[in-house]
Amino acid sequence: MDISLLSALFPSELTQYFIITKFELKYDVDKTEYWLIDFEEKNDLPTGYSSSDYESKGFMQSSTIQDFPLRGKAVYLRIMKRRWRHKENGTVLRRDFSFITEGSKLTRELSDFLKDRGRDAD
Predict the structure, then answer these.
(1) pLDDT per residue as tens digits for the range 1-27
(2) How far apart are CA 122 and CA 64, in angstroms?
(3) Which of 16, 67, 76, 81 is spaced 20 to 30 Å from 119 by Cα?
(4) Do 109 and 102 meet the contact criterion of CB atoms below 8 Å apart?
(5) What are phi and psi of 57, to 5 degrees?
């Protein structure tokens, strides 16, 4: 299946900053089918920061969030938020997703995670 087609199923608030890297049909311990979709934050520095000053240092710990069902199967989104490090002083930078509003089409759990209210940072 062409993973890029899946982007059409998700709100633009998500696909603007994340790419889908994997889409799998999995089975839980009860042999119930579910979809697992992996999202990675794009390697684009936030506005106002220079790539000559910062380098990508991978991802923070991923978080798995249940989304709306798809074709009668549960859907889980595994989200990986990126971090960058300042080349000289070592400070860590991550994108601020606080702009995501209550009126967005994201689930509350996903919105809270992106705004860092859903779990401890780092």
Answers:
(1) 567 778 888 888 788 899 999 999 999
(2) 15
(3) 16
(4) no
(5) -125, 40
pTM of structure:
0.77
Comparing CA positions, the residue from 33, 122, 39 lying closest to residue 70 is 33
Residue 82 scores a pLDDT above 80: yes
Distance between start and end Cα atoms, the chain: 33
Q: Per-residue b/e over 28-54, b at no fewer than 16 CB within 10 Å?
A: eeeeeebbebbbbbeeebeeeeeeeeb
- Distance set, CA 119 to CA 36, 90, 109, 114, 115 (Å): 20, 24, 10, 10, 10
For tokens 């199967």, name the residue. Answer: 73
User: Do residues 13 and 111 lie in contact, with contact meaning Cβ atoms separated by under 8 Å?
Assistant: no
Question: In this model, does residue 119 exceed pLDDT 50?
Answer: no
The dihedrals phi and psi of 77, each to the nearest 5 degrees, come to -105, 120
Give CA–CA dist 118/62, Å, rounded.
12
Q: What are phi and psi of 4, to 5 degrees?
A: -65, -25
